[in-house]
Amino acid sequence: MSNCTKCHRHLNECQDCRGGRAGQSPLGDALHCRNCKDTGLVCNEHGGHWQ
User: Fold this and answer.
1) What residues have CB less than 8 Å from 26, skipping those under 6 apart?
2) 41 vs 48: CA distance, rounded Å
3) How far apart are the first and last CA of the chain?
4) Which residues, including other chains, have CB under 8 Å from residue 44's CB and lie 6 or more apart?
């Protein structure tokens, strides 16, 4: 698993987009996650700003 580049803590799966599997909108466009910045991973301390 990956670690945060800022604090080196373990990264967790983003619960907002289920780990980067946000899917598609009804119009077929890809959905984007603001919480993890589309990485699918978040740091408990830095959220999606870990990279």
Assistant:
1) none
2) 7
3) 14
4) 9, 12
Side-chain-side CA neighbours of residue 13 (13 Å): 7
- pLDDT for 1-51, tens place per residue? 589 999 999 999 998 888 777 666 666 666 788 899 888 999 999 999 888
Using CA atoms, how far apart are residues 14 and 32, in angstroms rounded to an integer?
12
Q: For 1-51, where are the E strands, in sequence order?
A: 12-13, 41-42
Q: Whole-angstrom Cα distance, residue 42 to residue 26?
A: 26
Contact 50, 43 (CB under 8 A): yes
Can you tell me which residue has the tokens 């991973």? Answer: 41
